[in-house]
Amino acid sequence: MGYQAHLRVWRGDAEGGELRDFTVEANEGEVVLDIIHRLQATQCSDLAVRWNCKAGKCGSCSAEINGRPRLMCMTRMSIFEPDEVITVTPIRTFPVIKDLVTDVSYNYQKAREVPSFSPPKDLQPGEYRMQQQDVNRSQEFRKCIECFLCQNVCHVIRDHEDNKANFAGPRFLMRIAELEMHPLDSLEENTGADRTAVAQSDHGLGFCNITKCCTEVCPENIKITDNALIPMKERVVDRKYDPILRLLPWRKR
Amino acid sequence: MTEFERHAYDVVVIGAGGAGLRAAIEARQRGLRTAVVCKSLFGKAHTVMAEGGIAAAMGNVNARDNWQVHFRDTMRGGKFLNHWRMAELHAKEAPERVWELETYGALFDRTPDGKISQRNFGGHEYPRLAHVGDRTGLELIRTLQQKIVSLQQEDFKETGDYEANLKVFAEFTVTDLLKSDGRIAGAFGYWRESGRFVVFEAPAVVLATGGIGKSFKVTSNSWEYTGDGHALALRAGASLINMEFVQFHPTGMVWPPSVKGILVTESVRGDGGVLRNSEGRRFMFDYIPEVFKDKYADNEAEADRWYTDPDNNRRPPELLPRDEVARAINAEVKAGRGSPHGGVFLDVSSRLSAEEIKRRLPSMYHQFKELADVDITAEPMEVGPTCHYVMGGVEVDPDSAQSRVPGLFAAGEVAGGMHGSNRLGGNSLSDLLVFGRRAGLGAADYVAALGSRPSLSEEDVQAAARLAVLPFEGGDGETQENPYALHGELQQVMNDLVGIIRKGEEMKLALTKLDELKRRAKNVVVEGHRQYNPGWHLALDLRNMLLVSECVAKAALQRTESRGGHTRDDYPQMEADWRRKLLPCTVEDDGITVTEQPQPAMRGDLLDLFEYDELQKYFTPEELESHRARLGKES
Amino acid sequence: MTAGISAPGRPSIRARTLRTDRWWLAPAVTAASLFAFVVYATIRAFWNGAYYAPPYISPFYSPCIATNCVPGSETIYIFGDWWKLSPALIILIFPLGFRLTCYYYRKAYYRSFWASPPACAVSEPHRSYTGERRFPLILQNIHRYFFYFGLIFNVILTYDAVIAFRDADGDWGHAGLGTLVLLVNAALLWLYSLSCHSCRHIVGGRLNHFSRHPVRYRMWTFVSRLNARHMLYAWLSLFWVAFADLYVAMVASGTISDLRFF
């Protein structure tokens, strides 16, 4: 049943740090987060790790396990060989605070910069009518648990710190797509602002080269690239690059 | 004297789940400068775990539904121990609160005519739960989070500062409430990230910290559920009621260990799942209580017909109220007929086709596949009871959500009274919205009516800081205690001795052990420094858990009857006399005091919503003297 | 390395990646396959021969658009006689453009040729990155026009498959292995085109209220199902179009003879 698992955990803070080796007991049916917790309870009580629900629903325990961005609570130990060294590091796109905990405030800043849902002025609460087929697409995007693994893996900011200022990342481009496809969002009617244009100009949709890592790491299996980013790019083409559509009179969507 | 980071607000909301965020939105919209404090990151609160839906009598699926029906269902579910006024407000206001979410951008599942779809759930007479698949809690929290962002964007437009009127303090824990002249004056806490201490000056505080599940070993609750709000309220001089009522959900996962306690939604049974013991027997037929005999099938043939023809057959006993099912599972396991890992089998694989299971229960299929490597379309699940919800909480005024302490408000799971002795599924999310808003409103009214602002005492601030760093000093040094180990022991005590089935002797033993743990907790030592130090955080939370656990154990020992989420092996009957009594806990010196207090009598027109025969099962004859049946009035 | 994973404040880990799996395998296979195709297609495009074996015409050379196209392949000479090079060079621009701007192939070659990124969570070797915001990559936005042209080619290649139901003398009602090859080729090209992301957008994706356009919603649902396998169709059709050309070339050059069914 139980065995001794070999863990290599990054410990340190913004000043520096290193990978350290530990041997921790592991039992059948456990996940990486269990082993991290056991390490914390038995060997280093001040090991910093962020977690909450431990059921893959809150998106707190994002880390990189053997170099792959994953939720620790959703990574079963049984996928590793018992004698394999399991490397656990903080996500590498954001500043580290301590050990496995990173400063993800970038994401909250970007969230603030996306124009919010703008309710239709002529409808009172209780009068909203929407068809299921019209909300399906946005509902898929609202499955997002904000684990920020897509933000972490996206090479646009992972490999280029300087792009952070001009790029909102897959999660928030998807948020724009969600509102853009919302059947009752009235931002354009209320303020004249166009979400697709904003996605391109302010949030850096053009940085995305659709290499799909965001989709690959999404623990909710949201098809971020196919269903949000590419449709947004196509909508940008509609408004900006398609000469024929630009000649046609404005068509009601 | 140490200098601390200081902030002044009109109201500080502690907790950023559904209730806290709704309270903050209300307070900010009423013009208060508002701070929201959350223990984890913004948007990660335990509300995300809610699956089923938000109960609100909108009547979208069945037009006969209305607030009176919802009110009746809620009171029945709570075995009439609920505060009637809270249940009334809740039933009346829930639909508005749900509709309001749509104006914030929420996207619920729809009916064919484009309204919000509503689903059936245990204890609700009509389809009533507004939902988004089985991730309604996530939708709720995200919607409120995004509404907060939109309010911040408005402030940014006006002032150039997103946080001018509404600021979120994420990864922040409040350790003490500060008072002056008996009123709330502020709060003291620390940034989890840096360990830096912060003093809030605020005349009003809203508690919205959720529950206490982390005091139990097997629980569906996250690490945040350490009863912080309950303990803060107690230490500030407020009272807790109904603390003896803890809901154990009958079906939590029991295997593998990493997910022990995580919920298996009620819908599995609603859609045809059956419970079997190790002998393969559908044992629930053996546990149908007398009062439910006419509503539940006593043979498999009839029970199976119910799924397709509910009008002419009685319900399968797997759909008995949560407390009954939890007790039955418990009894089977104790009798040695449990599954290999100490639960029973919940089987849907032999009942529905694989495609049907994946279509109806997508996230359960996903959850078992990913977490347990179990294919629920091919094999049964192993399930057992798990600590899920505490009905008890801060005693509040139903309309304003204010506690006994002026300026201290509470909403959501941390508030008591609304659910009586047992909460219905779906009533939790609506509770958060209705009373979250009322708490924000209550705080706004309170602050507006305030003549002068209370001022903080520097002495209290210094005392709070000294208390917070105690775990680094290591008590008297003779025996040093590890917070993790102590926490484990506490969970074991509560699970074994004050768990789902209770006995007087066991609870007395529990109280002795709790005393012992309390003494040992003074010697807890943590290593490292204050920067993001989980050991230190746990040491501070442990204090709250111990206090609240004592409250649960003492109240449970005192209530010598069985009702809803409180089952006494030595007092198995429900007593009408006990329905009239509440057991408020308060803190005196270092210990919990439990007293008896009469339950406020229900308003006549609400009492008249029920049939006399039904009320007789719960009320004493003299309480029913004013019922329409006794006065000879027609219904 | 630029200020990416080694930027100040980030966890100090020197390794470019800590992945322990063979992450380089997928981009390597992709690069090798694409390279092999490009080499084959270039050779065949310049070959200017062995593309017509009645009744089969190689998809690389269809339609016959220059007068130097083999007589008897029954197509109009749109291009006139000034073009002296291989007609394939003109024809292939369109499928090449379609595939080059395709959302799937972009991912494939950005990863495998540009290493931008080579694989997920493996840092890329470039100093700076501007994405598809500037020339020339901003031209990727004309994908939908290549899609429209691609449809024309699909019609022509379907026509070629239909006229392959003849024998070498032009009599109808016959078929051989080559007929089957061209039929499969046409089918795969349709699947690839219809599963295209631009197609998905055009048929319905741009709408916000599906409920008001039930027919387009059904089309969108259908295309969405195909779209989920766009990558598969991209590879199958790419492989098959080369195979179809090879088959015709081998028959035309007499290396093998076509297997006649009836």
Automatic annotation (TrEMBL), chain A:
InterPro entries: 2Fe-2S_ferredoxin-like_sf, 2Fe-2S_ferredoxin-type, 2Fe2S_fd_BS, 4Fe4S_Fe-S-bd, Beta-grasp_dom_sf, Helical_ferredxn, SDH/FRD_Iron-Sulfur, Succ_DH/fum_Rdtase_Fe-S. The keyword 4Fe-4S applies. PANTHER family: SUCCINATE DEHYDROGENASE [UBIQUINONE] IRON-SULFUR SUBUNIT, MITOCHONDRIAL, SUCCINATE DEHYDROGENASE IRON-SULFUR PROTEIN. The keyword Iron applies. This is Fumarate reductase iron-sulfur subunit. GO terms for biological process: respiratory electron transport chain; tricarboxylic acid cycle. It comes from Gandjariella thermophila. One of its GO terms (molecular function) is 4 iron, 4 sulfur cluster binding. SUPFAM superfamilies: 2Fe-2S ferredoxin-like (SSF54292), alpha-helical ferredoxin (SSF46548). Keywords: 2Fe-2S, 4Fe-4S, Iron, Iron-sulfur, Metal-binding, Oxidoreductase. Pathway: Carbohydrate metabolism; tricarboxylic acid cycle. Belongs to the succinate dehydrogenase/fumarate reductase iron-sulfur protein family. GO terms for cellular component: plasma membrane. Its cofactor is [3Fe-4S] cluster; [4Fe-4S] cluster; [2Fe-2S] cluster. Residues 5-92 form the 2Fe-2S ferredoxin-type domain.
Automatic annotation (TrEMBL), chain B:
Residues 487-584 form the Fumarate reductase/succinate dehydrogenase flavoprotein-like C-terminal domain. It comes from the Bacteria. InterPro entries: FAD-dep_OxRdtase_2_FAD-bd (IPR003953), FAD/NAD-bd_sf (IPR036188), Fum_R/Succ_DH_flav-like_C_sf (IPR037099), Fum_Rdtase/Succ_DH_flav-like_C (IPR015939), SdhA/FrdA/AprA (IPR030664), Succ_DH/fumarate_Rdtase_cat_sf (IPR027477). Residues 10-429 form the FAD-dependent oxidoreductase 2 FAD-binding domain. It holds the Pfam family FAD_binding_2. Its cofactor is FAD. Keywords: FAD, Flavoprotein, Oxidoreductase. The active site is at R322. The keyword Oxidoreductase applies. GO terms for molecular function: steroid dehydrogenase activity, acting on the CH-CH group of donors. NCBIfam families: PRK07803.1. This is Succinate dehydrogenase flavoprotein subunit. It comes from Gandjariella thermophila.
Automatic annotation (TrEMBL), chain C:
The keyword Transmembrane helix applies. It comes from the Bacteria. Keywords: Membrane, Transmembrane, Transmembrane helix. The chain crosses the membrane at residues 23-47, 85-105, 145-166, 172-192, 232-256. This is Succinate dehydrogenase.
